[in-house]
Write a structure and sequence with these properties.
Blueprint: H1 8-18, E1 23-25, H2 26-32, H3 37-50, H4 59-75, H5 85-88, E2 91-93, H6 94-114, H7 125-143, H8 151-166, H9 169-205
Antiparallel strand pairs: 1-2
Helix pairs in contact: 1-6, 3-4, 3-8, 4-7, 7-8, 7-9, 8-9
């Protein structure tokens, strides 16, 4: 009998159970989850940014840098993900990873029940390069220190990544639309912030 393919939530829970050390490196995560390639790794690093948890300084940067690397590699058409040694050595607290898995597993399992192969044009090799370009832009938005603008692009990447893993074009499209919506929000925040700053500057100069 053919073994049932492990879902994203199964793999995440397995990583937390198997790694008992206080910290886990980015390289160890990549090695443990290599079987799912770009889709799973991008989902993994977008997921912590989708969950409203107290975050230390540099939290978004730690997770957005791998997203930038993987997005660029998708644009280049690479077959498997690669990360440099300095990034592979970056450490994450196991307790934080366990909390992320605990909070995300319920909604991941609900989405996974709905995933199935469809709209194959959205997961073609050409489409994956376009997705990589969009994810690169989303990742840049996540990395910017703009309050309340990191969440929508991260959710978009997480959902489209789940779609990539299951060749589900519907969820790929939905994820991209959510990410684009997040970019619009970020642009509006930047424009409004700039206008407010200029207004305050003009007022102060009078």
């Amino acid at each position: 009998m053919k073994a049932k393919k492990r879902t994203a939530s199964d793999l995440l829970e397995g990583v937390v159970k198997e790694h008992q050390a206080d910290t886990i490196t980015v390289g160890e995560l990549k090695s443990a989850l290599h079987e799912r390639g770009f889709g799973f790794l991008m989902m993994l690093f977008a997921l912590p940014l989708c969950i409203p948890l107290p975050s230390p300084p540099g939290y978004t940067t730690i997770f957005s840098i791998p997203l930038l690397f993987f997005s660029t590699q998708m644009i280049l058409g690479m077959d498997s993900p690669w990360i440099p040694q300095w990034l592979a050595r970056k450490q994450l607290k196991r307790t934080m990873l366990a909390l992320i898995v605990e909070k995300s597993s319920p909604w991941l399992r609900r989405i996974e029940k709905l995933l199935h192969p469809r709209l194959f044009f959205a997961s073609s090799s050409v489409a994956e390069r376009i997705i990589g370009f969009l994810c690169l832009i989303f990742s840049i938005a996540i990395a910017l220190p703009i309050p309340l603008t990191n969440w929508p692009p991260a959710v978009g990447i997480a959902i489209l990544s789940l779609g990539l893993m299951s060749k589900d074009g519907f969820y790929i499209i939905v994820g991209n639309l959510i990410g684009i919506f997040g970019m619009v929000i970020a642009a509006l925040v930047l424009i409004i912030g700039q206008q407010a700053t200029m207004a305050i500057f003009d007022w102060a100069m009078k």
